[in-house]
Recover the amino acids of this structure.
């Protein structure tokens, strides 16, 4: 079975807001394509390791020169994806696998390492000058009837990725906002077709956007 290339953090951009990965570490990981390929390789080579986390950490150090602490974040992410997304990752290169990894394991990776979903030059350029609240609304209004928070996440992430041509990881941050809007703190204000309402946006600003800003690595307001 091709579990060796389990998708882990495909297309994730990198920006510091946590401690485990230093600025030097993140500077070595700025190419999202190289990160994807390298981490998939480490996942595969460490699949049957007795200590998979340590194996992945050492592999990331060898491939990218990152510190042990930074590498451990990716080891934890591999463990999370194996534990939470195996059913969706039978085809490890699939979009479904990637979305599950972002949904179930993306927050942990970001909080451990300092990765952000939209911090690379490509995603920043694609969102330059955009009102991020409106970018979310344009997609979320078509995803608000989903039956679970994961479905709302995936629907929004795919819409952002398709409409704006961002990385899927960047779209996943908007998907996290949908989870908070429709199944979390703002379900009363944003549910039942109210995604475009002022009350919904006000609630999101107060209850959801600190996490949204952290995930994207961008300002919630129009980018300068």
């Amino acid at each position: 079975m091709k579990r060796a290339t389990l998708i882990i953090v495909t297309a994730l951009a990198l920006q510091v807001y946590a401690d485990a990965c230093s600025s030097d570490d993140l500077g070595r990981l700025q190419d999202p394509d190289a990160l994807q390929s390298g981490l998939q390789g480490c996942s595969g080579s460490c699949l049957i390791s007795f200590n998979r986390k340590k194996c992945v950490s050492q592999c990331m150090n060898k491939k990218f020169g990152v510190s042990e602490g930074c590498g451990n974040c990716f080891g934890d992410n591999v463990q999370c994806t194996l534990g939470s997304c195996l059913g969706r990752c039978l085809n490890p290169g699939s979009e479904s696998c990637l979305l599950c990894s972002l949904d179930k394991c993306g927050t942990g990776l970001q909080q451990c390492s300092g990765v952000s979903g939209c911090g690379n030059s490509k995603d920043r350029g694609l969102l330059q000058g955009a009102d991020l609240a409106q970018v979310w609304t344009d997609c979320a209004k078509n995803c608000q009837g989903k039956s679970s928070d994961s479905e709302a996440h995936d629907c929004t992430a795919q819409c952002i990725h398709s409409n704006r041509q961002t990385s899927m990881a960047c779209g996943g941050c908007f998907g996290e906002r949908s989870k908070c809007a429709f199944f979390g703190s703002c379900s009363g204000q944003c549910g039942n077709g109210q995604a475009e309402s002022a009350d919904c946006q006000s609630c999101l600003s107060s209850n959801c956007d600190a996490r949204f800003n952290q995930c994207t690595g961008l300002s919630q307001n129009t980018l300068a």
Notes: Residues 133 and 201 are 8 Å apart (CA to CA). The first helix runs from residue 23 to 27.
